């Protein structure tokens, strides 16, 4: 018998499904696909990592933006032996799932470095303590591996403890805001031009910092037709962990003020001002 498959986020296709506008990263939900043959992306000769032999020297984490590739703007890296042992054991002991996954945008991308090079993974951890997580290889996203609840909780805590500084965000190309300062506003201008021209894809990643210096992320991905907007405050330890996504068809401008409209839902609003002086 097939085992029920669980994932952190399911794809919500606007035109085809008409499902709710705001997607939340909560507890895993069942997949709608039951095929026995895994769906692979990339190398047809894919081989899983030999966890017994692998000597991991570094694990780099980024916030995922798409399926099938590792987002290059890193949140941070782990290099000490204790942390590497945690990641290695969590992934080694994960249980391989049967059937073929139907997945949405992952929460995180991880790159494991060893003497043979880099291996990329997609990771879902959710927000509820005691729940199980999931990972896939970046180039084999049809096959999932279920993490234990204990390892899921520990990895979630470890990743959210990373210090993503303002300087790092600027170096990554984020449009950085907070405390009256803004950086990389040229990236915002390029994104606006892409949307206004129509048909040209573009993206803008806004990182705002709280008074305590903790980041809140707002990501906008334009595919030539609609803007996928994601709000993510899970690295703000003073807030309620939230990661929500909606799709909008218009970017409106009034002077230096921008907002999204014609969205799937009014439950997730976006407003951004370029009024402050750029650094």
From TrEMBL:
Question: Coiled coil: which residue ranges?
Answer: none
Q: Which UniProt keywords are given for this protein, alphabetically ordered?
A: Signal
Give the YhfM-like domain ranges.
71-160
UniProt-listed InterPro entries: DUF4362, YhfM-like_dom
Q: Where is the signal peptide?
A: 1-21
A Pfam family hit: YhfM
Tell me the organism: Cohnella boryungensis
Is this entry keyworded Thylakoid? no
Q: What is this protein called?
A: DUF4362 domain-containing protein
Which domain of life does the UniProt lineage start with? Bacteria
Q: Does the keyword Signal apply?
A: yes
PROSITE patterns in UniProt: PROKAR_LIPOPROTEIN
